[in-house]
Amino acid sequence: MDRRDFLKNVCLFISSGAFVGGLSPEVWAKMIHKDYDPAKHYYGMGIDIDRCIGCGRCMQACKTENDVPDVPYYFRTWVERYVIKTDRSVTVKTISTSLEDPADTFVEKDMLRSFFVPKLCNQCDHPPCVQVCPVGATFKTDDGVILVDEKRCIGCRYCIQACPYGARYLHPKTRVADKCTFCYHRLVRGLLPACVEVCPKQARVFGDMKSIASPLGRFTRMNKTHVLKPSLNTDPKVYYANLDGEVN
Amino acid sequence: MEAVQNFMELSQQVVGFIYPNEIEIHWSILIVVYPYITGLVAGAFILASLVKVFNVKELQPTYRLALLTALAFLLIAPLPLQLHLGRPERSYEMFMTPNLTSAMAMFGFVYLWYLMSVLLLEIWFEYRRDMIVWSGEATGLKKWTLKVLSLFSTDISEKAVAFDKKTVKVITVIGIPSAFLLHGYVGFIFGSIKANPWWSSVMMPVVFLFSAIVSGIAIVMLLYMIIMPLRGGKIDMKCLDKVASFLFYAVIVDFSIEVLDFIHRLYESEESIKILSQLVTTKLFMSLVVLQILLGMLLPLGIMVVIKVFKLQEELRRLLYFVCAVLIQMGIFSTRWNVVIGGQLFSKSFRGLTTYKMELMGIEGFLVALTLLILPFVILSILIKLLPPWKREELAGN
Fold first, then answer.
1. Quick one: closest CA in A to B200, which residue?
2. CATH 3.30.70.20: does it fit domain A128-178?
3. Which of B94-108, B114-128, B368-382 has the highest mean pLDDT?
4. Span B234-247, average pLDDT
5. What integer is the mean pLDDT of A106-115?
6. Which end of chain B has a smaller Cβ tally under 10 Å, C or N?
């Protein structure tokens, strides 16, 4: 390669880099995932309460994957520990992922039953958050996932008030609403949500509701399922197996 | 780091279980100020409409004052909303791409309709003749300000003035449902949130509306009693008694509706009743039971009954009316507090209560809220200077 060719290549390289770098994320996504057709999918999640051991790996994986502030109160997903004692009193606590926080201990003979409940955005089919967003920043995708356009959200927090599940928070850095996206950036690449990927007990099952053969299809076939707060008519797409009546 | 510290302290004060994201109270004191202010606007306008539409002659001395009060508060009403946004620079999106299913998206349109099509128009027609006359008498800046405000109209013929009067009446007729819309709509923003049992009630817009009427009448009464003597006039007792009468009826209606709502909730005793009872008897005891109900409603009601039953002297009446109006303002502010803050103090898991720690200095803090509450009075004083609610003859005639 002579000097002339080298300079020509350098110029080409820089200009093509500028062109690619200047593309919007949406265009990028389309270029990378051109085979992905949202209309062909409809996502949901299944959670088997009896399988969850409360290890909290899902909480950690979610925080890492999605840049959720590393503080003990903003969560896209979290796990609640329910302890129901023989006197029928109920104690609930969000489990901590910090080793410095020892878990509460209970005297076994006082306990009637105890279990862990992983929680996340229910990706409702009738999402109240989408209904109330004044600028349409929160929207439902064709594949049934509720997303927040962080470039449009004005941070009024009406959606946070409207969510019956406490699944949303105001991101302290971006000052816009934030919530679980089912790891949408992973879905379009054909990957599983981070929390599902890391669960050592397969308590979380992810899948396409349009496909009877998907893991979720199997989960809903093999289990009697229930959703959270069904009376609110939000039609959640997170289905719980072995859910206790005390959970809300 | 400071925020982390704050939240960790807050988490110590949580009673029972709350969802982890609920540690932060999202609608702060500014969102308490917002319905309080729009309530005053709607209420003051309803008082003004009593004169024009329902021909309550005794209230004439308060008519223009009520209009100016409504305008002064309306101009400030969007500010608390704007300041509370996470991204205030994007608020224009509400006008550009409003989501038609969102109650909140309608705010800008309802607000603009009320400001431009009702209040400004009514004030303009009401003052048009006077502005032309005053601009003739004044000099310098004031002359030109009045000329601009009157949009350079010059016709003060009998025919034109008659047209003004007729138009004012028409606008007031449109204005009454608009005032209902303005504040009933604010109630709907809360009442339509099914996730929150403290808010979710079909009664919410109605409760908001009547408490708005109560607070609006009380603020005009208060201002009338303060400003009239300051401008060298004498308080018209017939007018004051009449205003107090309407205030009395409004408080009774408001109180009845709130009691109805309360009894209904208690009797239905739904899933949320336990946590709401706990909320009322602990975190909201002071602001709801003591400030809103006892001091803000029952005490003024009692005082007004005493005034009505025993024929008290003028001076004592004035003093008691003043006390009533102040108590009612405090009561209605507490009402707004109890709705907005109260609705966020319990967890949607219905298993615990959290705490609201008001900032002092921050953008959503106490000082900003106080400033927003003082600003309308500053605007009102300018408006009164520019567009006096009472003519010299009226002041002297008294």
1. A162
2. yes
3. B368-382
4. 94
5. 87
6. N
A92 contact residues in B (CB cutoff 8 A): 16-17, 349, 351
Residue B304 lies in a domain: no
Contact A90, A82 (CB under 8 A): yes
End-to-end CA distance of chain B: 63
Question: Between chains, do B348 and A154 touch, taking CB under 8 Å as contact?
Answer: no
Number of domains observed in the structure of chain B: 1
Kindly state whether residue B167 falls inside one of the protein's structural domains: yes
pLDDT at A244: 96
**B280 part of contact set with chain A, CB < 8 Å:** no
What is the sign, positive or negative, of the torsion defined by CA atoms of B252, B50, B235, B124? positive
Q: What angle do CA B334, B354, B259 make, to 5 degrees?
A: 40
Q: Which of B21, B90, B195 sits opposite A73 (nearest CB)?
A: B21
pLDDT at B180: 86
CB-based contact B20 A131, cutoff 8 Å: no
Report the pLDDT averaged over residues B269-289: 95
Under a CB-based contact definition with an 8 Å cutoff, are residues A237 and A129 in contact?
Answer: no
- Report pLDDT for A18: 53
Best of B10, B28, B89, B102 to mutate (most A CBs within 10 Å, chain A): B102
pLDDT at A50 over 60: yes
CA B30 to chain centre: 14
Q: How far apart are CA A113 and CA A137, in angstroms?
A: 42
Residue of A135, A180, A247 best to disrupt the B interface, most CBs of B under 10 A: A135
Q: Are B41 and B381 in contact (CB under 8 A)?
A: no
Residue B350 lies in a domain: no
Q: What is the mean pLDDT of residues A139-162?
A: 96
Q: Nearest chain B Cα to A155, which residue?
A: B86
Average pLDDT value for chain A: 89
The mean pLDDT value of chain B amounts to: 93
Long-range contacts of A94-102 (CB under 8 A, 24+ apart): A94/B17, A94/B19, A94/B20, A95/A54, A95/A56, A95/A59, A96/A56, A96/A72, A97/A56, A97/A59, A97/A60, A98/A72
Beta-carbon separation of B90 and A152 below 8 A: yes
Contact B85 A92 (CB under 8 A): no
Give the structural domain span for B73.
28-243+360-397
Quote ipTM for the complex: 0.92
CB contact under 8 A, B349 and A176: no
Residue A25, pLDDT > 50, answer no
Does B82 contact chain A (CB < 8 Å)? no
Contacts B350 to A, Cβ<8 Å: 248
Instruction: Return d(Cα B41, Cα B380) in angstroms, integer.
Output: 12
C-alpha A142 chain-centroid distance: 17
Q: Reduce the secondary structure of B38-61 to three states and give it as a string.
A: HHHHHHHHHHHHHHHCCCCHHHHH
